[in-house]
Amino acid sequence: MIRMSDPTDREDNAVAAVPTSPQEWRDFLERYGERYLKSCADDELVDLLDEDQLDAFDRGERVSVWLGEAPAREEALVASEERLGVRFPPSLRGFFLASDGWAHLDAWVEGVHPCGRVSWMRDGDAGIRVTEIYESIPGNEDDVQLFRRSVEVARGEDFWLLDPTDVGPDGEWAAYEFAPKYGSPTKFPSFSALFLSGYDDMDDEDDDEGEGEDLA
Questions:
Q1: pLDDT 10s digits, 149-158
Q2: What interhelical angle do 22-39 and 90-98 show, nearest 10?
């Protein structure tokens, strides 16, 4: 998966047909898995597929793979919300009720946390370090305040954050992809729009590869 090439356009375009309910998430995540396989290196395919699936994939047949986890139980989801003192936005709740975590995103975000590991960015070691660094540099006051009030739902080298103080008319929280090495967070209207951007990026990658083959 490649990094977003035009975050501004992506924010505007990612809001169409985004998943919210558990069934919509299951349908979308199944498509995501199929798309993800097409972007994988050979050594990762070996880890994700069994021998029969690999043979089918090599023949160009459709192969489905579930890259997530079992659905979260409602009790576990409520316990996480009570622990944080919030009620998760609809698209995040729907995601957890379809898959309690996700392990295959991109090279910069390792995966979405299970609901029991979702936490305030300000409470995590990595979040504390980043906040302290940004706080020491003049001009970063808005970003520092965002870090202090945001929930961390995914992390690797980069962070996925949700802001419970910025709620849309549909109940969705503003979502951010934040890459510390590149600076300012990129805003999305919801968790599902942020997740969908990765799917769109895989489309872009396939298109780029196809153009390269045409030019060869």
A1: 999 999 988 9
A2: 70
